[in-house]
Amino acid sequence: MSEHLLSIVLFTPLAGMLVLLLLPGSNKNLIRIWANIAAAAGFLVSLPLVFRFDKNAEGFQMVERYDWIPALGVKYYLGIDGISLLLVMLTTLLGFLAILSSWSAIDRHLKAYYAMFLLQQTGMIGVFISLDFFLFYVFWEVVLVPMYFIIGVWGGPRKLYAAIKFFLYTLAGSVLMLLGILTLYFQHFEQHGFYTFEISELLKLDMPLALERWVFWAFFIGFAIKVPMFPFHTWLPDAHTEAPTAGSVILAAILLKMGTYGFLRFSLPLLPKASIDPWIVQVMAALSIVAIIYGALVSLMQDDWKRLVAFSSVSHLGFCTLGIFALNPNGIAGSVIQQINHGISTGMLFLIVGVAYERRHTRMISEYGGLAHVMPNFSFVFAFAMLSSAGLPLLNGFVGEFTILQGAFETNRAWAAFAVTGVILGAAYLLWLYQRTMLGQITNPKNLRLPDLNLREWAVFLPFMAWALWIGVYPKPYFEVLEKPVAQLVERVRPDYFAQHALAVQAPAPGAVEAGER
Amino acid sequence: MSQFYTSTDHFVLVPAIMLALFGCAVLLFDFFLFPEPRQRKRLVWFLFAGEIFTAAGLWRQQAFLASEGLPEITAFQGTLTVDGFSLFFNWIFVAVSLLVAIVSWRYLEIEGEHHGEYYGLILLAQCGMYFLATGTDLITLFIGLELMALCFYVMVGFLRERKRSNEAAMKYLLLGAFSSGLMVYGFSVMYGLAGSTKLRAVAAAIASRDAWDPVVFLAMATTAVGVLFKVSAAPFHMWAPDAYEGAPTTVTAFLAVGSKAASFAFLMRIFLGPLETARPAWEPLLVLVAVLSLTIGNLAAITQNNVKRLLAYSSISHAGYILLGLIAGNATGLKGMAVYILVYAFMTLGAFLVVVALRRENLIGEDIEDMAGLMHRSPGYAVLMLIFLLSLAGIPPTAGFIGKYYIFLALLETSHYLLAALAALYVAVAIYYYFRIVRSMFISEAVAAPPLESTVGLRVALAVTGVLTLAIGVYPEPFLRLAQTSLVR
Are B244 and B318 in contact (CB under 8 A)? Predict the structure, then answer.
């Protein structure tokens, strides 16, 4: 069993889905209970990953490698490093919490709804643990279809438009990415005489810079649309706003991370020359900074609560991509931590909108106001999520943003200066949102009798809050887990980095650990 | 046997003899033994018997090639050639004919046009397909093509009472005859060049000339028009939407899959045989045709409201994708064509079978709106249709992705980067119109219609196509080996 741990983690949700399909459709509570059991099981089987993970080991762990399609050189090849570990844990936990949060929100076609969530769960985990590019691509595409249905069937008023826009955007990006993958595959055959999609084999490629650039842009389109980076972000506000609450949570918390993960796992190590190409780095940083500031400014302008949170994702993900292309240990480690943080805090924010929406069936900020008087617990949770998202010290957002800014500062001071304005604007739109919805007198009589959080909603929020607090107060384990993979990544892209910086500070990957202890 | 009909000749000809024999037998028995309409259902058993004998003949050919380790058997002084290529296609034809036949009787009964000759025409059309895949002589190929086409002209117009069907048949006949005329003119020029109708001799004659030689170009261009018409590649696609829409849906399925696969077999025989050395002249032409097919097929499909018409345009775009494999022209590209044709056959057939299932006494069931809420009425059909549509669009893990994978890889290997990017982006366009059907099935509110009734035949056919569409996507290995055999020559 233990050598197939990753396969078990991968296929538990799928097995749960298959059983779910056999249950009678008329018994709604049975379906709900089973879906929650399956999702909880998905989280529980992933817990041993944390305990088995050896943070001092180089390379990938818990590897499984079998032939899948020998005619194409495709392997069923799984493995995790620190980056994947964190993202897999985020996926399994948030997947469970998202399903738990849907208990009363969804009342139509329950079976299909939960089936789509569980299928998607398998797809997302697969993306984060595949070490074969073909396998990765299959999971990458598998995720699209359930999300299309989640938005399209259970979404808001403009669901059809949002669902197909999401699908078309991502698909257009991913087919171009596929061409990039196939180019690497063919180049490998040319240079080494056999066809393979294994990442570890493709790392041995030595391609001319011009070709690397082309492949980089092909990957960029695929990943940047998923992240989404400016100017490919226009699908995001529609999809996030129209999706049902749990769908928005998964979209924001996990699906977007597939893009940033793609940059970290594929673009940087496979295309090291293109990744430090000054022109490409400048473009990436510029797009990230535009996303940070533009996302924040647009968030300030929103009168739709959910759309505001959606645009704030653009801004936060801008930090993540900026950290990646700072190309130093602080930037990259900070970026991964920020990805987790964004999953936690934006996931919470979407759930909070969901709680309000379930009670009032409107997302307009002007419809609310003074909720703190009738829903004190709710307003406390919201305050917590808002401060975590805004980057208050001792909460998770601070750790990520601070480390990214540190990394950005090290590479280019102007980047850090621009990015800091994003932090300030972030605090502005979040605090203003809080003020408009929670504080002041209740102006709308409909808000006078709203029930506060119930037990199930607390059960959804508590793990989020605990995790946010843990990262905020004691991030050291996270930096330790990330140290090896991040050092490897930086070593790969900038082979002379550690030689140059070893004199300045003594430890092998000093910046990251230091930031953790601060 | 005599020197004009050796045992090898017989061995090669057996499947065609069986098809022709049983095809004619169906016509006779229909007339003499089963005059009552109720009895006609039994004729499908003749078709089964015919297919079993054909399959036995093919199996013996396959076993002989394997046991002797021969690349090919030629018969009638090089007029017919049995090789991996011909066997690969013939197996597809057998499967497609069987699948179409087992779903037909109920559909034709609803249409009130259940006649015995239908099964005879299927067998005779398949006989023509046999010669298209096996023939290596211009005359044989032409006769095979015409035999197949004539059966299809009749079958497309099978709904005698329906204007649509009549119009479709007439259009198909006129345009088909015209294109055949052009093609046979090209053949005559080839004969003039070589002094022989054997493909080998023609190939040698064309190889001895420059690729841009005007006579070669004339032969190539006129032949190409005829062939491209048959595979419904733009701009020679005009007949396809009308014929597909007007024909009975079972015939549409047979036309879209059987006729298309046979025509591609023919196209590969011609372009990779005699015209191979003229590649510099035809490659730009085919690039144009492929890009036009992708563009017209995908863009025109967006606005269609009739599912059959939509699938017709989608099949035009698929012709474009398959042609891209020929343009790449390397081993990956040719294998990709074979794989693509294989997966295309099953996924397209499956999609049409769902349309067949939608037909009921007083509902045509061909419009996208007729599928509204299918998920709530008949979830099995809706999910199968979703699988077929995802496969048609090329989303993994379905069969269609494997086909597109080979085409893209072949284009990249031969440095056709722009074509690859264009072909890839049209996948996103395609998903838009395929998902109009999905949206109707899964998201639109259900129209007040009872769940679909189905026959055993329809369920079997849908199960076979559905399972294959998924299986080729999830575990393609055996199917890729199969396609590999088609390349050995």
Answer: no
Instruction: Tell me whether 0.90 is exceeded by the ipTM.
Output: yes
How do the pLDDT tens digits run along chain B, 489 residues long?
577 788 888 899 999 999 999 999 888 887 777 777 777 777 888 889 999 999 999 999 999 988 988 888 898 888 999 998 999 999 999 999 999 998 888 888 888 877 788 899 999 999 999 999 999 999 999 999 999 999 999 999 988 888 889 999 999 999 999 999 999 999 999 999 999 999 999 999 999 988 888 999 999 999 999 999 999 998 999 999 999 999 999 999 999 999 999 999 999 999 998 898 899 999 999 999 999 999 999 999 999 999 999 999 999 999 999 999 999 988 889 999 999 999 999 999 999 999 888 887 667 778 888 888 888 888 889 999 999 999 999 998 899 999 999 999 999 999 999 999 999 999 999 999 999 999 988 888 777 777 777 788 899 999 999 999 999 999 999 999 888 888 755
**Residue numbers in A near B420 (CB within 8 A):** 179
| B2 within a domain of the structure (yes/no) | no
* B1 occurs within a structural domain: no
Token pair listed for A27: 């018994």
SS3 A132: strand
Cα dihedral B318, B322, B328, B333 sign = positive
* Number of structural domains found in chain B: 1
**Residues of chain B whose C-beta is under 8 A from some C-beta in A?**
375, 390, 395-397, 401, 405, 408-409, 412-413, 417, 420-421, 424-425, 427-428, 431-432, 435, 439, 442-443, 475-477, 480-481, 484
**Residues B82/B65, Cβ–Cβ less than 8 Å:** yes
Q: Rounded to an integer, what distance in angstroms lies between the CA atom of residue A24 and that of residue A128?
A: 33
Task: Find the angle CA(B193)-CA(B197)-CA(B202) to the nearest 5 degrees.
Answer: 45
Q: What's the domain range around B288?
A: 7-485
* Cα(B185)–Cα(B288) distance, integer angstroms: 23
pTM for the model stands at 0.93
Of residues A72, A142, A175, nearest to B424 (C-beta): A175
**Cis peptide bond upstream of A269, omega within 30:** no
Q: Do A175 and B397 touch (CB under 8 A)?
A: no
Query: Please, is A85 exposed, middle or buried when counting C-beta atoms within 10 Å of its C-beta (0-12, 13-18, 19+)?
Result: buried
In three-state secondary structure terms, A79 is strand
The candidate with the shortest Cα–Cα distance to A385, out of A436, A361, A351, A420, is: A351
DSSP for A457-514, please give it: HHHHHHHHHHHHHHHHH--HHHHHHHHHHHHHHHHHH-TTHHHHHHTTS-SSSHHHHH
Q: Is B28 a domain residue? A: yes
Largest Cα–Cα separation, chain B: 69
Backbone angles phi and psi of A463, in degrees to 5: -60, -40
Provide, as residue numbers in chain A, all residues whose Cβ is less than 8 Å from the Cβ of B401: 141
Dihedral over Cα of B78, B79, B85, B91: its sign: negative
Q: Indicate the pairing of strand A74-80 with strand B72-75.
A: unpaired
Rg (CA), chain A: 22
- List of chain B residues whose C-beta atoms are within 8 Å of the C-beta of residue A144: 395
Residue carrying structure tokens 């808002």: A386
For residue A406, the one-letter residue type is Q
* Residue B427 placed within a domain: yes
Interface test with A, best of B324, B413, B415, B484 (most A CBs within 10 A): B413
Take residue A29 and report the two structure tokens written for it.
Answer: 């509570």
Query: Which residue is closest to B445 within chain A, CA to CA?
Result: A153
Q: Is the dihedral of CA A279, A285, A286, A291 positive or negative?
A: positive
Query: How do beta strands A61-69 and A74-80 pair?
Result: antiparallel
Q: Confirm if B48 and B36 have CB atoms less than 8 A apart.
A: no
